[in-house]
Amino acid sequence: MLESVIIQTEKPIEIVIVDSSDIPLINKNKYLKICDLVFAQNIVIVYQYTKTRGAAYQRNIAMQLATGDLFHFLDDDVILESDYIFQMHEIFRKYPRYAGGGSAVRCAPPHITWHRILRCLFLLQRNGASGKFTFSGMPTHAYGTNNFKDVETLGAGCMSIKAEAAREIKFDERLGTYSYMEDCDFSWRLSRKNKLFFNPKAILDHKNSRVARAKSSDMRAIYIRNYTYLFFKNFYPTNRLRILAFFWSILGLFVEALVTRKMEWFSGYVHGLFWYWHKYP
What we know:
This protein is α/β, with parallel strands linked by helices.
């Protein structure tokens, strides 16, 4: 990710890294060599190590450390096209009414398949869509579409937010160490008061690093637990009829696991729901 930042046609003024690795990056020669390249571009690096883990927690720390008026939130396993920052800045320069926006993650354009029909039917998360939240509180993303548009959902690893708006909202640290859907919660709350955009001209590749990933069943447990938490936090209070759509989407997740024969997902969903209803603080 750092290597793709330093070749940008429009450079950032600083890079803020909040690191919770087992071995701090500051002790790794490869990282130090990249830092030399960053410094050569007159970009400041702000580095903070923390033993406390969690994407939401670390993003909040980064916002406290940053000095700019626009934040680009990036994951460590993304690679930016060389004009990425320029394309995002152009939107903010032309349309100051926007408080934030998301870029395009390179992926295949949407096609009609039985799996996509199933996800649409059960109001589940999917790409190549409107970028709005479904009635069940599930996010849809505009990745794979070609039109600039107003959206409600942003991806954590490819969002740009004005500093003042971001600091007012903050990320929800109750979402845990692996803060699944922290971007959905953040963008939902942000979109209640602000306009957000999807910019298909700003493109990155998401390599989906397997480093420090939990096993599939645990990931599914965290996913359904956090979805349930966010539904009752953000959506249920606004319209209690949404509870019907929520249970419909939960059913859809189990149906998807069965038809795709991913029984580890099925067991993960069971565990995640038990985790939420009996143990969530």
